Amino acid sequence: MNSLRSLLVLICGIAAMMPHSLLAQEEPLDRLPWQERDRAEHKPLPYEYVREADVMWSKKIWRTIDTRQKMNLSFVYPQRPLAQILHTAAMRGDITAYDPTVENADQFKQVMSAADVAVIGVRKDTVIFTEPVSQEDVTKVVINELTWDQITKFKIKEVWFFDTKTSSMQVRIIGIAPVMEDKDANGNVRGDRTMYWLYYPDLRDMLAREEAFEPKNDMKALSWEDMLESRRFESYIYKESNVYDRAIAEYASGKDIQLEADRIKNEMMEFEHDQWSY
Question: What are the residue boundaries of the structural domains of the chain, listed by start?
């Protein structure tokens, strides 16, 4: 009995000498004064069932989200940008990435391995420098890892349709593709490079658990699934479904590209308005 009492006294003495930070649970020091929701169990709202017989019109649209535009700055929030969420999950194999180099890649035809995804954007450079002691030229290979600021755009593939049951125009995102800057050996930007395509319905559960930054109100915590479904981004159309299966840039140039994109957008708006009788 005495030995048990002595042991308890010893344990209490050690605990009293330990810093409070070691005894406390691992909680963020900048936690808010109220209990926050646990987003780990958050689920996306299921889509409303749509009968094929109720769809009288549909059109596929491809658009580009440029993260450098002011309305899209949430996409590049430094603490956890959308590119980091998607690319990290693809490298772990949590989501399936599809090869963008095959024909009709946005139809999700060829699966990429996690190893192939991991080397995207990784560049090996050869640097020659002089050893200060021996004065000899030494060649060294430097590996430059992908940085999130290199991913400046996202491609979106979606389908717009008019549902006669609800008399409304609706949209469903089909796919999303991160786009990075393609640079030469000297660091000059040569254009854009599509990294891979992702099937959006498979991402909804993951994106619903990831919080997006809301620039106007910290209390309005939205998930990335909320951001995309509620169309909280600025974008421009670069392709519509057409008989030639070509993008706007293939038959227009200069300011005519923007005018053609506006024409497509206005046509869809006018179609919806024409379904109503006043």
Answer: 54-120+151-273
